[in-house]
Every structure is written in C-alpha cells, then in structure tokens.
Amino acid sequence: MRVLISGAGIAGPTLAYWLAHYGFEPTIVERAPELRSGGYVVDFWGLGFEITGRMGLIPELREKGYMVEEVRTVNSRGKRVAWFPASSFTRVTKGQFVSIARSDLSASIFSKIEDKVEALFGDSISRIEQDADTCHVTFESGLRRDFDLVIGADGLHSRVRELAFSDESQFEKYLGYKVAAFQAEGYRPRDELTYVMFTEVGQQIARFAMRNDRTMFLFTFADSLPHRPEEDTLAGRKALLHSRFGNSGWECPQILQALDSAGDLYFDRVGQIHLPSDRGAWSRGRVTLIGDAASCASLLAGEGSGLAIIAAYILAGELHRTQGDYVKAFANYQQLFAPFVRKKQKMALRYAGTFAPKSRMSLFLRNQIVNLLRIRWFADVAVSRDMRDDIAIPNY
Predict the structure, then answer these.
(1) DSSP class of residue 131?
(2) What is the pLDDT of residue 198?
(3) Which of 23, 122, 308, 382 qualifies as a FRET site for 35, CA 20 to 30 Å off?
(4) Residues near 76 by Cβ (< 8 Å), separated by ≥ 6?
(5) HEC profile for 23-52?
(6) Reported pTM
C-alpha cells in the first residue's frame, strides 16, 4: 500500500520506518526545505525510548544526548534557591533516559529511512479527495499523486487535520501559555550538564549548555491571548520577548542581547488537541492523524516525542496486523492509544504552574517541592508516578 505521511518531525519518520519494515510504501512530505534544526531540548524516556531501541538507535541517541546532572532554580541575583540531582530520572527508568535536542532525535530517526523512503521537502498538501479506492492528493507545488492512505503527522497546526476534519479551532484547547526557544554560540556562563531556571510569577527562562559551545534558551510565559499580531514575524516575536523579560533580573539582559542576533527562533502557543472520543473519530475514510496532530499533550507533559513514537508504532503495527484493512487498523489504533494519551494530557495540566506560577506563594511551594526531590525515596515515588507509561502494546 502507498502511504503518504505529512510531516518529517518525530511521528512521521517513525511511522515511515515501521511501515517500510512491514512492506508498505511510505512517502513523506515536509513543508520545510530540509529537516528542522534548533528548537529545544527534550527529556526522552519510557516506551518511546524502548521503541527506538528496537530501531537500533540507542547508541546514537546517547552519543548526541546529554546526561543532565542537576536541575537548578536561581533567583534574580543568580543564587541557587532550589535544586535536585537528575539521577532520579535515570534510576526510575532503569537507565532508559536521555536529554536530547528534539531536532537531533528527529534527524536520528530520519537517518534510518532516508535511503529507503521517498521524501518530498519544501512542499505540502493543498487538497485531498477520496473515492472508494484511492486518496487523490494535490500538493502546493502543483504535483498530483494517488495514495492508498494519508497520515497527518504535521503537528499542532496540522494541515491534514484542517483539510480532512475541520478548522483547528474545533480541536485546540489553548492552555494560556506561549513558548519560545533559540540557541546561541559562545554564551557565558555555561554550567555544564545543569538545567538552570529563573522563574518569576507568570514566566520562566531556562538555559542549558550544549556541545560545540552552544547554549539553548527556553522561554515560557503566561498570555491570555492565543495570538497577537506581532507573533507573525521574527522581529515581532523578539520584541514580544523583550517586553516580557526586559525588566527581569538574573541574566535576562544578556540573554535578550543574544536573542537579537539569533536567526532562528522557535515560537508557539502551548495547546492541546482533543479529537472526539467516539470510535473511528480519529479518521476520515482513508485519512488519519498521529502525534501532535491527533492528540498533542503540549510540552507541559514532558513526553511529547515519546508519545509521537508510541502512536506511530501502534498505527504501523495495526496496519500490518490487519493486512492493510485500514478501517480496522485506524479504529484499533485509536482504541489502544486514545485512553493512554488522555491521561498524559490531564497530567500536563497539573504542571502548568511549574513553568509559570500564578502567584508568589505558588512559586515558593514549587521551589520547596523541587528541594524535596533531593530526598531519594520522595524523588523515586514522585518521579515514578509521572514517568510511568501505562499502556500494553500487542506484539506486532
């Protein structure tokens, strides 16, 4: 079967890998002219980590990733006010844990398929028409192709979801936060293998030292408006960050100075995607959705990449197990994955205050909990509760 996958992030290449493994003929289309770089660092663990192990990727991911030693919160003068050792993450996951740039994780997965799967970069889907046997797809470039199935793995703002289902506003739940990230070269200080956060009421900025003398910065801040006109341009986004963090202490002035020189800035609102729960609601005929396009939990969940990999693995496995009966496969995929990801979405809502506390009291309590994580038994209980993947996957 010929399967068109929209999106070359995490879910798309994972799905393409497993479909090719089972004998399908996947094609990936990606709007960007090449694989995306930059972005932020993600913590990668759980069943998603295990699945990449089955793909033979663990040695490469460990080489590209980082074993963070400390998570630290500082005040406006740079003094450490709360911290805990990150060893609890590795201990609870029995070593199946790594922090890695999201773009590096995506590139590693894509490297497993780049010589085996057709990839159309710099293009996107503009129209999908279905009949009893085929999906007739028109691309923005004018190219027209026929496929047996179309899978939307194109993120929170999915084009496939818009074309085959409905407008984004019907499914997105805005969580009241914005996020931005960029990387800078030569920034000092570095604090190797330490994730450093400066948190104020309603906002947080963090930095992490990466290889090749680069530093990643991550901004999170509360915003009552889902969209502001200035967010449509790079200059406007930078100006918005200046207005939010320009009067903050710690290293904010020099971080904003580094931002001014950045040519690439990731910026988005923090939201979740909630499709209807009825059986078969995640598909429209020969079209279905995976990853953030189907069930974005947001970066507040801390496991978005892992969830995308799990979803892709299940969908490919069900298409293989049903011998291409896409109606059954799509329904089985939703039945297996939807209850699991809903729990992750609910968990993400509990952690919003961790990134941008709503009051000084909330910030104080957050810091006390961070310090309690230095107690081994407390850390093991708290971390294991939130890092457990309660889902049983068939042996495909």
Answers:
(1) -
(2) 98
(3) 23
(4) 198, 248, 249, 250
(5) CCEEEEEECCCCCCCCCCEEEEEHHHHHHH
(6) 0.95
